Amino acid sequence: MEAANLTLVARLRLLPPQQQTKSYAWTESCKIAASGRSASIAGSSGFDLRGRFRRQQTRELLLGSCDVRGVEERRQRQRRRGGAVNVSAMDAAQPFYHESTRSQELDKNRKLKVGIVGFGNFGQFLAERILQQGHKVLAHSRRDYTDKARKIGVTYFRDADDFCEEHPEVVLLCTSIMSTEAVLHSLPLQRLKRNTLFVDVLSVKEFPKNLFLKVLPPEFDVLCTHPMFGPESGKGSWAGLPFVYDKVRISNGRRSRSADRFLDIFASEGCRMVEMSCVEHDRFAAGSQFITHTVGRVLGKLGLQSTPINTKGYETLLGLVQNTSGDSFELYYGLFMYNANATEELQRLEVAFDSTKKQLFGQLHNVLRKQLFNGEVATKNNPSQGFKGSSSNNGSKQLETPYKGGLGIVSNIDSLSHLFDVDIKKSIKLDKDHTSQSQRI
């Protein structure tokens, strides 16, 4: 700071007397310096002008009774007497100090105050990563997460009014799909700033978009997002993981910076940023996310267990069951209830399963008919099949196999043949009737 004071004095000496007088007239402390006492110039940080030369020089500068040339002559005379210290300007430190201060201000402006509503597993998962980037995080939830929030450095509020009084720049809804509407209506929106940005991270997008536009005041900005990962799949790095967003209602100018800074949280983590409309998201999500959860839950009902001879495909199925079973049924039901495309995808899945089942049993029915009507011919032409026809007590053909208790097609025929017995007998009768009728004609 001493260098700054020296710079101030040296610069003022180069000004015309009129400007010197105007430059010093506003400070009260300069009057004290002009009266001959030691004083500090206002705006400096305690730099004293001591000695007769400095007091005289300061007095002349303040009163405007000298010019630059006169000051320089008196300075030279004083040097010859040996009692003067030359005052030189030191401007080198000032630009660095200014740049450092400006850099700190810019860094502070880049930091957000993010308020998370719904501090469950997913809310905590996002909060930890947001904190790591230096942002401030507040939290509010129906349950008491005070201890958990304190451990990770989040300020927790049990009361929604206290939460909104902190004026978070971003309100991030991490609630379940089913409770989003009730939670949004419970917030005292009048206590928030008019430029607050509302963000959701739900697995469906058209529903929160319509809800926000209906409930929130028009001064609030709306950003709909969906991180396509969770606490399990995003446990380590987020690099390459898709992050879908739609700038539903973002104001231009300074207010758009909050949305950009929030999106930068995920972009800086390496997420693959995908800007997509809410309509497109729900259409794609129904064919991917909802089907994935459906198949995983169906396989979970089977109680699949790991075996000593697991294939890669089976390991994939076990992983699918594990990933989907960790999510609540409420989440799965929300994917179905609040996505208009989910019903169509469920019907398509059902049709595909029925088609596969019909193809499978249709092939089995053909094998049964072939063995019943052409068993001897099939045995002669294909002796290596391991099947042979044998007559039962009632004269009908039955199948025998050397693979006792095996899992081949023969055991399936033996176990399921009774399902087609009635149809086969009807077919035989119809064939005989048709043959006899043809002979008569």
From TrEMBL:
Residues 379-398 are annotated as: Disordered. Residues 384-398 have a biased composition (Low complexity). Keywords: Oxidoreductase. Signal peptide: none annotated. GO terms for molecular function: arogenate dehydrogenase (NADP+) activity; prephenate dehydrogenase (NAD+) activity; prephenate dehydrogenase (NADP+) activity. PROSITE patterns: PDH_ADH (PS51176). GO terms for biological process: tyrosine biosynthetic process. Residues 112-390 form the Prephenate/arogenate dehydrogenase domain. This is Prephenate/arogenate dehydrogenase domain-containing protein.
